[in-house]
């Protein structure tokens, strides 16, 4: 599994490029990196070219000097696809990655073959959530990234899996520790400032997959399934919290494989 880097404006984006076929871009969540998808990728590369990207300020990608918005992260992906001469792709975004996928759909609708939000939402932050973003910014500023990640990560798993999947919880924590403090703060500000993008879901004509976790303590099912129309598939992963790619990877992989088959069919 070879890792590549690409300069995108003033930033450097790190990514893994595997497989041959229609392009699929996997976008991780907040304080994560491309390794979140380690159990899912082997299934998807059987019929697809899969790009697993580290977002700016996360993983092995660089951290920008200035704060950014969700749209800036989406434009990073557009520039990366340009550099690889990829005209169209299906985006699969987890949590923060879903917010970025929606922004990408807003900026580059003609470049999408499909879109999946995995434990994500088109709604903006509530006032309570915005307050929690500010608390997170203060905690990182005052205490550093490690205490913040220690508080954050266990809540991403269902209560049952938090206690039973100890190795996976530790795995996600170790990834989180590597997130730069400025990158995490920038992402918190970007998530806090993001607008409502339900109109994007309503207007998209390509196949869309919305994935929710039955035990998600971060984004409940009703916030994931915000739009109901003919081209939108809604799926609940049972016995999973916010991290189905690690809590129920086989179930998520099967759902994504089925969805991508429909995306291919829709282009024929």
Automatic annotation (TrEMBL):
GO molecular function, one term: hydrolase activity
SUPFAM superfamilies noted in UniProt: alpha/beta-Hydrolases
Pfam entry (one): Abhydrolase_1
Location of the AB hydrolase-1 domain: 22-248
Record's keyword annotation contains Hydrolase: yes
Keyword Ribonucleoprotein attached: no
Domain of life: Bacteria
UniProtKB keywords: Hydrolase
Record-given protein name: Alpha/beta hydrolase
Upper taxonomic lineage: Bacteria, Bacillati, Bacillota, Bacilli, Bacillales
């Amino acid at each position: 599994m070879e890792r590549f880097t690409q300069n995108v404006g003033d930033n450097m984006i790190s990514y893994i490029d595997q497989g041959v076929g229609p392009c699929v871009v996997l976008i991780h969540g907040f304080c994560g990196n491309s390794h979140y998808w380690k159990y899912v990728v082997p299934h998807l590369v059987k019929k697809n070219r899969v790009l697993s990207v580290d977002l700016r300020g996360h993983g092995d990608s660089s951290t920008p000097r200035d704060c950014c918005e969700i749209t800036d992260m989406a434009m990073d992906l557009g520039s990366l696809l340009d550099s690889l001469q990829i005209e169209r792709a299906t985006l699969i975004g987890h949590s923060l990655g879903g917010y970025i996928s929606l922004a990408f759909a807003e900026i580059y609708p003609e470049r999408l073959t499909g879109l999946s939000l995995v434990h994500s939402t088109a709604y903006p932050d509530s006032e309570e959530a915005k307050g929690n973003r500010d608390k997170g910014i203060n905690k990182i500023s005052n205490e550093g990234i490690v205490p913040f990640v220690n508080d954050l990560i266990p809540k991403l798993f269902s209560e049952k899996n938090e206690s039973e999947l100890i190795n996976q919880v530790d795995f996600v924590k170790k990834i989180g520790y590597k997130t730069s403090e400025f990158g995490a703060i920038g992402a918190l500000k970007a998530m806090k400032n993001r607008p409502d993008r339900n109109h994007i879901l309503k207007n998209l004509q390509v196949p869309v997959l919305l994935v929710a976790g039955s035990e998600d303590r971060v984004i409940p099912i009703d916030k994931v399934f915000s739009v109901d129309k003919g081209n939108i598939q809604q799926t609940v992963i049972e016995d999973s919290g916010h991290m189905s790619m690690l809590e129920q990877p086989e179930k998520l992989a099967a759902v994504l494989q089925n969805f991508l088959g429909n995306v291919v069919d829709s282009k024929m």
